[in-house]
Amino acid sequence: MPFTTQDWIDRFVTDLADVIGAIGGEAATAGPWTVAPADGWVVVLRAEQGSQGELAVEFDRIATEALAKRIMAMDTDPPHPMVVDTLKELCAQTAGSMVLAPPLVGVKLAIASIARASEAGPGAVLAQITVADAAPLALRMWGDIALVDSPRVPMPVPAPAMPARPAPSLPVSASSDTPPLDLILDIDLPLTIRFGQAEMPLRVIAALGPGSVIDLGRSPDDPVDVLVGNQLVARGEVVIVGGNYGVRITELINPAPGIRSLEDRF
Predict the structure, then answer these.
(1) Domain count along the chain
(2) Is residue 172 in some structural domain?
(3) Is the pTM of this model over 0.85?
(4) Distances from the Cα of 68 to the Cαs of 28, 210, 243, in angstroms?
(5) Which residues pair with 79 in a beta bridge?
(6) Residue 152 is assigned to a structural domain of this protein
(7) Which domain holds residue 234?
(8) Tell me, what CATH number does 237's domain have?
(9) Among residues 147, 171, 202, which one ends one of the domains?
(10) Using one digit for the tens of pLDDT, what is the confidence trace for 118-139?
């Protein structure tokens, strides 16, 4: 059966609830709704890589501001830019989580725009996300988005196999000083995900407390670093997997030299 626009909407709402629950530390549930969001923002997700079209999601202003205030653990209402950044981060993580399960594996979704809400598109669907005792987060979604078939690449015709030549035997004394990689593959190593870093005066650090905000010098779209020990081995994007944080690898940093540098430590 084809993956319809309604299926995309259902997947988004369900995964958004998981993301909100993971970030806020409280269970969040998704379900249908009858009240349209008001005076909020519209996030447009553009389909790429194995899909085409766009999905628009409208968020209620008051409920979104309350959610940002709750996530940031603030006593006062968050400023407009902070609400938009929170909304952008929630949608980016949801877009990454949506494509981890079939049939969307391999699909890529990107945030095309975030703007103040105006007129809803045709066929809009209402939904809500509820977190503990907070007011429901009203959503309205519409768009035209679909999977596309990946182009088929002709398989190359294998060349005739050449008769193998026996490898010359080496004396036992000719072994390398570097231990074989197979001997260390079962060793547990610490893997660290680095979201960012900052340098701050001791006076500022001593004044930190609940509700303090630390600028890590990175935007929500920047990749996070994946380190083994203190060695940078990859970069990736944060996703939600089963309600928990995860990282999807998007770039390897010199994989062969990186593995060799780890091997040389043992």
Answers:
(1) 2
(2) no
(3) no
(4) 14, 15, 19
(5) none
(6) no
(7) 179-263
(8) 2.30.330.10
(9) 147
(10) 888 888 999 999 988 788 999 9
